[in-house]
Write a structure and sequence with these properties.
- This protein is α/β, with parallel strands linked by helices.
- The protein has one domain (3-152): 3-Layer(aba) Sandwich (Rossmann fold), CATH 3.40.50.
- The protein is built from 8 helices and 5 strands.
- The chain has a 5-stranded parallel sheet with strand order 3-2-1-4-5, sandwiched between helices.
- Helix 8 links the parallel strand 4 (128-130) and strand 5 (146-148).
Length: 153
Amino acid sequence: MANFYFDTSALVKFYVQERGSLWVQSLVNPQSANLIFVSMIAEVEAAAAFSRKHRDGELESDLYQPLIPKLRQEFSCFFLPLMITPDLIQRAIELTTRYSLRGYDALQLGTALLATEILLRSSQTPLTFISADIRLNQIAATEKLSVDDPNRH
């Protein structure tokens, strides 16, 4: 059992077959007993990613059509979504100024940092930040998070 935080690039790999998908799916497998934290915003970002992949011809209609309803149904079953709060917004703003992050990336990283604090306060294992965004992984490592890139698996 381990603790992970998936940004949207990792979450999408759970639903759409691409490089790293099998590894991501193995982490989410209930038999692994892993806890997978996500930001509430990831649900919206994943739906947008599915739509973009469909629009760009990367995802056939028969695969795309059930994805958003499946995501909506399963989001809280497989993942532990964390709410966006005023404190999290403040943290994300600070991250944008420190690292010139885009808004959603700052929310993702801020949420992962918050989840880490929650885990450490309750004497649990810190999480590993999972993202296919190389720059975001570098910044997460600078913030002392353990990181992994699903594209390496």
